[in-house]
Design brief:
α1 (18-28) packs across α7 (191-205) and α5 packs across α6 (154-173). The longest helix is centred in the last third of the chain and has 20 residues, at 154-173. 41% of the residues lie in helices and 20% in strands. It contains 7 helices and 7 strands. The mean pLDDT is 89. The chain has helices at residues 18-28, 51-55, 67-78, 119-124, 135-149, 154-173, 191-205; strands spanning 6-11, 34-38, 83-89, 94-102, 107-111, 127-132, 182-185. It has a 5-stranded parallel sheet with strand order 2-5-1-6-7, with helices on both faces. It has a two-stranded antiparallel ribbon with strand order 3-4.
């Protein structure tokens, strides 16, 4: 089973269009052919922390993620073994007791802001992609998403963007672009780039 599984890493700033790119890949390949493993599911378990300590966590820093668990579970999938993927609540700032059963599929996509920052993780990947989108576009998408899905005001989103997202992006996410085999500018809007990517992945499958 090991040789039949292709692992694809998709990184890029928050609001860059990674989810759209993943969706297009899933739609292009045969049904039930792809398992998507979101990096957001692998934030550290914060059970031992107080509410105040949890709220102080910088979710845009590499130290916020449980890289050991993610590497272990990706290795399991690569060797044809199913995993119990953790789930995370932004409201509680902690891992939930529920897990998601993920079976190994011919294509495994690991998607998240810092997917390319961890060398052990990169070494597992057959294809590394960076979704590159202008900062103002990413800010607009963050405002749209966080005001609707996470109950934040526009001023809260902008303040967080300037104080946390922007500096963390420049320090940690942007430099991982150099590890990418393929960079997709304009994110999900780049239909031609995504089409070329999908053709390449189909070729890997053959």
């Amino acid at each position: 089973m090991k040789d039949k599984i292709t692992i694809i890493g998709i990184a890029g700033g928050t609001g860059s269009g990674k989810t759209t790119v993943v969706k297009k890949i899933v739609e292009t390949l045969p049904p039930h052919y792809v398992a998507v493993v979101p990096l957001d599911s692998y934030y550290n378990d914060t059970t031992g922390l107080s509410d105040e300590e949890r709220k102080a966590i910088n979710f845009d820093h590499p130290d916020a993620f449980d890289w050991k668990l993610l590497n272990h579970q990706l290795n399991e999938l690569r060797h044809g073994r199913a995993i119990e993927q953790p789930t995370y609540s932004y409201v509680l700032s902690n891992r939930l007791p529920e897990t998601i059963h993920v079976d190994p599929k011919p294509v495994i996509i690991i998607e998240g802001i810092m997917t390319l920052i961890n060398k052990k993780l990169r070494d597992l990947m057959d294809l590394k992609i960076f979704v590159d989108t202008d900062p103002d576009e990413r800010l607009i998408r963050n405002i749209q998403r966080d005001t609707i899905d996470r109950g934040r005001t526009v001023s809260m989103v902008v303040e967080r963007y300037l104080n946390v997202l922007k500096p963390m992006h420049e320090q940690f996410i942007e430099p991982t672009k150099r590890y990418a085999d393929l960079i997709i500018p304009q994110g999900g809007e780049n239909k031609r780039g995504i089409a070329i990517l999908c053709k390449y992945i189909e070729g890997l499958m053959r």
